[in-house]
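Handoff note, outgoing to incoming analyst
You'll be picking up this chain. Sequence as last confirmed:
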Amino acid sequence: MKKWIVMIWLMLLLSTVGTLFWYNEWVYQLPTPVPKNYKAVNQGRFIELSGPLKGYHSKPLFLHFFNPDCPCSRFNIKNFRLLVRQYGSKIDFVVIIMSNKTFTAKAIQDKFDLNVPVLFDASIATSCGVYSTPQAVLLDSQHKLYYKGNYNSSRYCIDEKTNYAKIAIKGLLHDNAQMVFNQLALRAYGCKLPNCTK
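Most recent structure output, in case you need it:
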């Protein structure tokens, strides 16, 4: 009788773990709900930059919208660092922290091994039409929006075929003005702003 109780208990435990895993995967596959009063920002639109970003003119600018509490952001950080390493000489990279919690730039740089500027200005997200993390925004050297969207369709950003942020960078650097991105690239997936909820 004890064996049966233990087996039933283990089966229940495994079923619960499997259900939770399936639920988390299913939630990740859902797009982030579009906020009320959201104003879309279309490709090609000039983005007015202020504050510390105003001085970026000589190279294209890659804005990484990041929430340290967002699991999707944390899954993506290795991919972001690879992009910085590969394209940091041709593109300026900046991390924009999207969180209600208080952090310092140095704390973010140290914790996530980042050697790029870190800013705390939620108005940049509004200007670019960003409402979830992680999101990538790529501006050309005239500050026109070239790409706004996801890094990858894979949760852990490992699928090279759907590495949308890298594809966008390559397109911009090769003067491909007519680049078209699919809905998986452009529809927001991840944590809602400003709190990490999904």
